[in-house]
Amino acid sequence: METREFQEEQQYLERVERYIEKRIPILLEKKDELRKDIGKGRKDMWEEGRHGVNDFDDIVDLTLRSEVIVSDEKQYIENLKELQKLEKMKENPYFARIDIQDEYGPAESFYIGALGLKDDKTFDMYVCDWRAPISSLFYGFDVGEAWYEVEGRRLDVNLQRKRQIQIAEGQLQNIYDTDSSMHDAILGEILSGNTVNKLRVIVSSIQKEQNTAIRKIDKKAVLIYGPAGSGKTSVGLHRLAYILYHQREQLSAKNIVILSNSNIYHSYVSGILPALCEDEVSHSIFQDILQKGLPGDIRIEGYYQQYKALQAKCVVELKERKQLLEIKYSKEMLGFIRKYFEEYEFVLPDLKYSGHLILSAEDLSRKVSRVTYGSFKRRYEGVEDTIRKLYEDYFAEHKEEIYEELEEKVRDYISQQELEVLYIKTKKQVIHNALERLKDRNRLDGEVQLLEIVKAFEEKQSGAVMGMYARLQADMADKHLWYEDALLYLLVRIYMGEVKTYQNVLHVLIDEAQDYSMLHLAILKMLYPKSSYTLLADVCQAISPATTIGSYEEFQWVFGEELEQLPLLKSYRSSGSINALAFQMMSRFQKEYSETYSYFQREGKKPRYICSKNRYETIQKLLKGLDHYNMVGILTKDEKEAHRIYEELTKCGEKVQLIDKPYDEMKERIIVLPLVYSKGLEFDAVIASNFMEGEIDDSFASSMYLACTRALHELFFVETRELPAQWQACEEYLEMVKE
Fold first, then answer.
1. The predicted structure's pLDDT at residue 180
2. Mean pLDDT, residues 68-86
3. Residue with more model confidence, 266 or 509
4. Distance between alpha carbon 77 and the CA centroid of its chain, in Å?
5. 601-604, long-range: CB within 8 Å, 24+ apart, which pairs?
6. Region of residue 729 (left: phi > 0; alpha: psi -120 to 50; beta: else)
7. Deepest of 69, 254, 407, 581, by most Cβ within 10 A of its Cβ?
8. DSSP secondary structure letters along 591-622
C-alpha cells in the first residue's frame, strides 16, 4: 500500500479522534446538568408540588412535573449511552472503508465501524454503523456493480473500493484493499488469536453468508444452520443487534428472549449486545419455563436428567422408554393433540332457572356451533359468554317474576334496594353454577385431559403403544413426571388456556435448536404467539438421537411457510488439521458431509492420540505445555469421569474449575466438564479423556465431532486403549503416541 494512502487514512483517523475528544467533555458537562435537573425536579415535586388531588388543577400540576422529570431522565440515559459509545470508539472507531459512486454524483467514501458516529451539528457522518443499509455493501459485494436497499428501495451503485483498516489503541496499524488478496490473511490472523470465556464481537470479520443471515428480517422465522464453527451463535447475537437497530419503533431489548438449555451459554454470550451499545436482553432456560407452566406440586425430571437416563445400561427399561419417547415426540402425537382440541365437542348442560327451561342442551349446541371461536380456549370462552348472556337476558326479561319469587322465598319484608341486591346476587350465583356444570361435564382440567388424550391415542394405535396410558396415570398419581410427559402436560395446559402466554415477547432466539424436539418447538410457538424466531442449529451436534431434531425438515414441519432456511457452509473455528479430523469422522456416517460443507484452511498442529497407562498424569503433563492459552477445556463422556479428573488435578495443585451443572458459569482458565455441557463453547486447546472406553454406539460420531470442534488450536485424545478398529480411517489425521 502506498505511503500517501496510509497518510490519508492517518489524517482521517486523527480527524475522527479529535471529534471524539471534543465531544466527550461536552457530554460529561451535560450529564452533570441533567443529573442536577433531575434531583432538583424531584425535590421541587416533593416540597412544592401538590400532594393531594382535589381538583383538575392538581392533576395538571402533578402531570407536568412528572413529565419534566421523565423527559430529563430519558435525556440522561441517552447522554450516558452516547458517552459509553464514544469511550468504546476511542481505541478503535472503525474497521473498514468503502468508496462508491452512484448515478447522481462523484464517488464518496464511507467508513464502517461497530458503532455509528455523526456530527450532532453539521450531521457529517464520520462512521457508519455496521448495521446501516449502506454498510451491507462491504459484507455482500466485491468491487464492481453492487446495490443496497433503503426502506425497500433498491439503490444501484458502483463499488470502487473495499478497504479493511486495522486500528489498535487508537493507532493506525495497517490498511488492506480486498482486491489485494489480503482478506483471508486478515481473517486467518483474527482466527488464530486466543479465545476468552466470552463470545466476541465479529463485525469486522462477518462473511458474506453470515451477513445474509444477520440481515434477513422479512421472515417470521429464520433457521440458520451449518457445521460447528460456522459462526451460528455469533451470527444469532449480531442478528439481535441488527433487529434492535432496524426495528426500534416496534420493539426493544425487553421484548427479546434468548432461549437455551443451560446458564453456561448465557455467561458465554453475555456482553455482545452491550459491546454494540444495545441493552442486554432476557435469557431463559427451557427447564424454568416448563416448571413455571406446570402445577407447583408436580416434580419434573430435568432435561439433562433425561439425557443421563437414556445413557443408562438397564437395557429392557431403556428400550421401552425410548420406544414411548419416540411416539411422544412424533408428528403423529402432535397432530393428534392439535386435532383433539380443534374438534373438541363440548358437553353442554340444559340451561334452567327455578324449574324453567331457558334453553336445552341441543339448542345451546346449535347456537354455539354457528360461531367459529378459533382456539380451544376462545371457543370455550365463547360458550361461557353465550351461557352468561342467555342468563342475563332471561333475568332482564323476567325481572318482575323473579322479584316476586325472591320476595316469596324471603317471606319477611325487604326494601326495594335490598331486593335489587338479592336479585343481582341470585343472578350471579345461577350463572356461576351453570359455568361450573359446564366445566365439570367437560372435565376441563389439564391433568384429566392429558390422560384422556393419551388413552385415546393408545386406543387409536390398536395396542401398538400399550402401557403408555397406564404408566402416565401412575406417574400423575405419584406427582412425578418423566421429562417428555411434562412437555406433553405443558402443551395440553397451553391449549386449554391454563398457562399464561408471553404476549410482550416479540422475538425469540433459540440456540442449539437441534437439541429440542418438535414438541418443544410447538410449545414455544404457542407460548410466544406474537414472536418471530431465530433458530440456530446443526443436526450433526444433536445431544441424543432419541430426543432431538433429526433433520431440518422437522423445523419446516413446525413453522411451515413462515420459516426460511439459511445455511452457513464454512467452518472458521478450528485449525485445518483439527477440521480435517472432524470432517473425516462425520463423513463416515454422512457421506455428503464433506461435499456440503468446507472449512477455512488455517495452519495448526495435528491432533494427538495418546494411549496412556495413567490418564491423569498425562493430562497434567499436557497442561504444563498449554499455559500460554487463555482457555483450556478438558472434556469427558460423563460426569463421573469429570469429577475423577477434577479431583486428581486439584490434588496436584492445578487450579481448575469443574462444571457439572447446567447453571454453572465459566470462571477459570482450565475447565473440566462433561461433553454435554460444552455445546456452543470453544477453547484454545481441548483434552478429550476416555471417550473410547465402553460401547461405541450410533451417537458416537456426533460426540467425537462435537469434542473435536470445541478446539481452536490444539486437540488431544487421552485414552487407555488404542484407536478402535472402526476408527482406523482417522489414523492418518492423528499423531499417534503411546506412553
1. 46
2. 83
3. 509
4. 27
5. 601/576, 602/188, 602/191, 602/192, 602/575, 602/576, 603/575, 603/576, 603/577, 604/574, 604/575, 604/576, 604/577, 604/578, 604/713, 604/714
6. alpha
7. 581
8. TTHHHH-EE-----PPPEEEE-S-HHHHHHHH
